[in-house]
Amino acid sequence: MKDTEPGKSERRALITGATGQDGSFLAELLLEKGYEVWGMVRRSSVGRYERIEHLMGNSRFHIRYGDMTDAVSLVRLAADLRPDEVYNLAAQSDVGISFEVPAYTAQTDALGTLYLLEAVRAAGLEKSCRVYQASTSELFGGSAGIPLGEDTPFHPRSPYAAAKQYAFSICRNYREAYGMFISNGILFNHESERRGENFVTRKITLAASRIAHGLQDRLHLGNLDARRDWGFAGDYVECMWRMLRHPRPDDFVIATGRQHSVREFCSLAFRYAGMEIAWRGAGPDEQGVDKKTGRVLVDVLPELFRPADVESLLGNPEKAVALLGWTPEKTSFEKLVRRMVEFDMKYVLK
């Protein structure tokens, strides 16, 4: 694949979901590599561009309005921009919320992906445009295989995961039926200080920071025993880019190959915020208390448990390491948590 096409001074990329955590890190990466970057955002009466605000002054970064549920807007974008690469990161990505809005999740995450692929085809770009589809470790759900790889059967346990399974399958189908270059990245949990506040990792680091500053009394959590393979989002977007540099489209698990429990994440976050937690009790009666004062810092609320929770997710990144030359854990789990807490210790005082 050539770096540029005849008549073009740089490659052009379209990122859906550009205002999200992954979209902002990916935009930074592509700009560093000399791309012209177009970010698709949804129109809102409230500005939500804080993650990409620092990119607005870059002459190679542009915003266009669109929506994954509006096929016409996607067709127009593909026809107008004629991108060399499309990174589909837009989604209703909160697993818990997907139980509350299952139809919207399906429209955005499943049908939206289909609309985007059809938009690429309608623009006559099916042979020239490379597409990255953001898949998820939630696809595996209740699968028994540990660690989980590209050949592990899917068993989605949420409306979000079910919608993403359709998106994964339709991408593979279009790759085989139309010869399109479409790669699915099955990303395990990847976090950062840009993570949404409704996600458990950011909920924890924000709460630890607020408690440290006397702005919050305690943190309420659900399943402390849930174990996840957590990596740094900034490392993972590099692998997205590497997938579209690979000679052939394919599906890749992106993970660190290590896992930690919510309890471990919580303990580490509070430690970096200046508090050591001792855990006592079990199940819904478990509490995390300050070792020095005995004050309750964390407790469990049964209503925060998901209707069908996934207890353990651990990925096998060997294929991505071997074929893409990717390094899974440039940022360690400890450095990731410290980074998030250090940011939030300042953020909560703004």
From TrEMBL:
<feature type="binding site">
    <location>
        <begin position="94"/>
        <end position="95"/>
    </location>
    <ligand>
        <name>NADP(+)</name>
    </ligand>
</feature>
<dbReference type="GO" id="GO:0008446">
    <property type="term" value="F:GDP-mannose 4,6-dehydratase activity"/>
</dbReference>
<dbReference type="GO" id="GO:0042351">
    <property type="term" value="P:'de novo' GDP-L-fucose biosynthetic process"/>
</dbReference>
<protein>
    <recommendedName>
        <fullName>GDP-mannose 4,6-dehydratase</fullName>
        <ecNumber>4.2.1.47</ecNumber>
    </recommendedName>
</protein>
<dbReference type="InterPro" id="IPR036291">
    <property type="entry name" value="NAD(P)-bd_dom_sf"/>
</dbReference>
<keyword id="KW-0521">NADP</keyword>
<dbReference type="Pfam" id="PF16363">
    <property type="entry name" value="GDP_Man_Dehyd"/>
</dbReference>
<dbReference type="GO" id="GO:0070401">
    <property type="term" value="F:NADP+ binding"/>
</dbReference>
<comment type="function">
    <text>Catalyzes the conversion of GDP-D-mannose to GDP-4-dehydro-6-deoxy-D-mannose.</text>
</comment>
<dbReference type="InterPro" id="IPR006368">
    <property type="entry name" value="GDP_Man_deHydtase"/>
</dbReference>
<keyword id="KW-0456">Lyase</keyword>
<dbReference type="InterPro" id="IPR016040">
    <property type="entry name" value="NAD(P)-bd_dom"/>
</dbReference>
<feature type="domain" description="NAD(P)-binding">
    <location>
        <begin position="14"/>
        <end position="340"/>
    </location>
</feature>
<comment type="similarity">
    <text>Belongs to the NAD(P)-dependent epimerase/dehydratase family. GDP-mannose 4,6-dehydratase subfamily.</text>
</comment>
